[in-house]
């Protein structure tokens, strides 16, 4: 199954923008979780109530929780059993409790698609980190909670997880760390955030593991990671990095993960490759 | 102070083990237990845990106590290979920061 391209996402964001500024939002024939989380967050931001979706797409949109996410009554009733087996519909991250609950629900769907038990454990660890970040960076005061949505495609041997928030963006977040300001002047902030040890809050003990773990695991899996924050984009697809400026910015941060479900994930291998302080080795402790 | 070892199951004791805030709550619980027990044996069986939780709970505790006291007072049981790699990474960073 073909992985999502940068062009797919940037043109979709343009499409949403067209729809919200008086035109029509043209939908691709094949919808993925990232389409729904981005659309829902923008509809919520614009407080759009009049949504017309073609019948052919409406059932799928309802299944993925589009109307629930924007707090409007769904025109189509979807059985919970159908959702539970094949999809993780959009869920707003309204509290810290929902972070772990959402991660558990997503893993309930994805774990049967993982290559082995260690892969499921690794995916769960990464997911929890990213969901916590997403929750922490959302503009909750405006009612714009972070959103997460996921779907595996068994025949395509691929799974996608999409997260969005409407917060201050990675550049502003990293800019809180004075030591990073000179690097931010010349570098793509989304790529910088995937580097080991990069954080906006070093004084609070944060070590910025989430996006580093995500990139390392996705590259190990030969998968696809796309990060868009405001007008900056970084992608690592099948280990090939790409970064660019986006003419039409996203009002927050979008993280898209695509995993090859027939390939293993091994977070222990990732942790073992992260640098240790001078003088320490991986054999220093006998836990 | 009683000379006792208190065994604590992480999965039974802490409902949520994902966020930094939950890691801080767990650390405070461990500090309280260390006031009434000489040693703690932490059982990580059936636990889904994050880097952030471990860093905030055990990493900060280790940094504050120092390596020698931490390893003397706290033992860790049922550690998966993934968790072992993670713990090694976090604890070395924190012990190094404390040194």
Short overview:
The complex is a heterodimer of chains A (287) and B (99). With 287 residues, chain A is an alpha+beta fold.
Mind describing the biggest β-sheet of chain A?
5 strands, antiparallel
What is the count of β-strands of chain B? 3
Fraction of residues in β-strands of chain B: 15-25%
Using only C-alpha atoms, the radius of gyration of chain A works out to 19 Å
- Name the chain pair whose interface involves the most residues: A-B, 38 and 33 residues
Structural class of chain A, by secondary structure, is alpha+beta
C-alpha-based Rg of chain B, rounded: 12 Å
pLDDT average of chain A, as an integer?
89
Structural class of chain B: alpha/beta
Number of strands of chain A: 5
Low-confidence stretches of chain A: none
Strand adjacency order, main sheet of chain A: 1-2-3-5-4
- What is the spatial order of strands in the main beta sheet of chain B? 1-2-3
Description:
The complex is a heterodimer of chains A (287) and B (99). Helices cover 41% and strands 20% of the residues of chain A. Chain A has 287 residues and is α+β, with helices and mostly antiparallel strands. Chain A has a five-stranded antiparallel sheet with strand order 1-2-3-5-4, sandwiched between helices. In chain A, a hairpin with a 2-residue loop joins strand 4 and strand 5. Chain A is globular. Chain B has 99 residues and is α/β, with parallel strands linked by helices. Chain B is 62% helix and 19% strand. Chains A and B meet through helix 6, helix 7, helix 11 and helix 12 of A and helix 2, helix 3 and helix 5 of B.
